Amino acid sequence: MSDPLSRTFLALSDPTRRAILAQIADGAQSVTALVAASHLSQPGISKHLKVLEEAGLIRRERVAKTRPVHLEPEGLKRAGAWIDHYRQYWEGAFDRMDALITRLNEEAKKNGRQ
After folding, report:
1. Measuring CA to CA, which residue among 40, 49, 55 is closest to residue 17?
2. pTM of the entire structure?
């Protein structure tokens, strides 16, 4: 899958990966800490980390014997921008619908139909 946005949403579709992102939101965590906080083995967590890394949502580094996992906000910003575009569209559509309903109700009151 070469589309970055599709990789992002694929990564976010899994509750374990969302839990990992929540866990590292306040600061980097070691893989060991991520394993301890989950019900998965180290290889299981590593598979999830690979998906998150390929989606650009995290970055891993090597510090001595640890591999801290950091949140990469740009990946989330990309998904947020896409969602925000459609949120604005639908809010505008709902605002127009509300205005139409208000206008129709006012016209009905003027014509004595209510």
Report:
1. 49
2. 0.74
